[in-house]
Amino acid sequence: MRSEPFRPAAAWLRAYLYFVACGVFAYSTGALDALLSSRFVPSNAGALWWLCSAALLVFITVAYGVLWSRWTLRFNRKLDVFPQLIFGLSWGIGYALSFLGFWHLSLIAGDGWPTWAVFLLAYTLISLWQVLWQDLVWDIYVSPEHDTPWTTKVKVPCTHVPNVTFSLLYFVAFDAYWGFVAAQVLALTLCSFAMRMPAPWCKDVTPAATRHPFVFGLSHGGGYVSPDPANDPHLKAIGAPY
């Protein structure tokens, strides 16, 4: 089931409305104040913090700059550096603020809980929100078509799940607010370039997300399904079987 044609200006507007909502959520839970009052290098930083920071940087670069990029459909969209950089930076900040908001919401809900219990609650909330938001909203109303059913299956366990896991563990271990934000900004800026997010003024024709049937009459972004997978140049370019 194909959606309406992709409209870059509308996609940017929806995205930035969400980014603002992420900021409001972070502010309302106290996450924004905690971020702004924290140091970029945590007070408990030592050799282990530097080692873990470097390891997280390498992981994000490989996971999103290499793997996610390799498995992303572009449909010949052009590289447009400035808008893709701005979108990626905004995307990363917005998502990082929402994740930190869920952490502080978990701190409030689990007042007096041990750190591991708060971590599990935050991790669960972030995971559930990401699954629902990404699949039912973001991948339909914001992103241009950039996945297939196969790439979705491989990207999630190879990039998104370990990103949330490692980044949140890193944040909790070191109280590293700015390091956590930096990790998400790097990841999603790489994504913006990889999928070639069209500028809001772009007039080039690009496929919108393919809508797949979901429960309760809803649609979700299940990815591009080629009418001729064996000979489709877009699938061949990323090594996708379908």
Describe the structure.
The chain is mostly helical and 242 residues long. The protein starts with 7 loop residues before the first helix and ends with a helix. The mean pLDDT is 93. The protein has helices at residues 8-29, 31-37, 47-70, 81-109, 115-141, 149-174, 177-195, 233-238, and strands at 211-213, 219-221. 66% of the residues lie in helices and 2% in strands. It is built from 8 helices and 2 strands, in the order H-H-H-H-H-H-H-E-E-H. Helix 3 runs antiparallel to helix 6 (149-174) and helix 5 runs antiparallel to helix 6. It is globular and about 55 Å long. The longest helix is centred in the middle third of the chain and has 29 residues, at 81-109.
Number of separate strands: 2
The assembly state of the depicted protein chains is single chain
SS content category: mainly alpha
Helical content class: 55-70%
Show unreliable segments: none
What's the end-to-end separation, in Å? 16 Å
Calculate Rg over CA atoms.
18 Å
Order of helices and strands: HHHHHHHEEH
The 3D shape can be described as globular
Count of separate DSSP helical elements: 8
Strand order of the largest sheet: 1-2
Q: Main sheet?
A: 2 strands, antiparallel
Rounded mean pLDDT score: 93
Which percent band covers the strand fraction? under 5%
